[in-house]
Amino acid sequence: xxxxxxxxxxLMAVFLCGCANDARKxxxxxxxxxxxxxxxxxxxxxxxxRGDDTSISLVIGGVPSYTTRPVRLYTYIYPGTxxxxxxxxxxxxNRTLITDRRFRGGVWWMSKSAPVSLSTLRASDHSLxxxxxxxxxDYDIFCGDIR
Length: 147
Prior knowledge:
It comes from Metapseudomonas resinovorans (Pseudomonas resinovorans). The chain has 147 residues and is an alpha+beta fold. It has helices at residues 3-17, 21-26, 118-123; strands spanning 28-34, 43-50, 53-60, 73-79, 91-92, 100-103, 107-114, 126-132, 140-146. The two termini are 27 Å apart.
């Protein structure tokens, strides 16, 4: 396992261990699958209910080499699955685009808030998408199904 993968897994383990047992039961872990434009990279999302909103923490273990630094990524929630997505996003989570680089080796961290409850997201198919900025090609680089 390479360093970014190891670091991403360690970050998620630390995040999970630091949470209260009741909150952990309500969390949803989303494996973010790399698209062909970002093959070989990994990412993970943790969704946590916050009343009528959903808190989203993302650990990103690599982006395409052409991505401008500091890394800026758009985040969307689409109706449908990654394999069968709706035509347009249900929620754009793009008030803040800049990631926080936590460790050497290309591991970044982002926090987002979605104006929808986690139970609503889980009631029907939804997918979480990370996309490069228009300056970097406006490409989807990760997608994960919210279950």
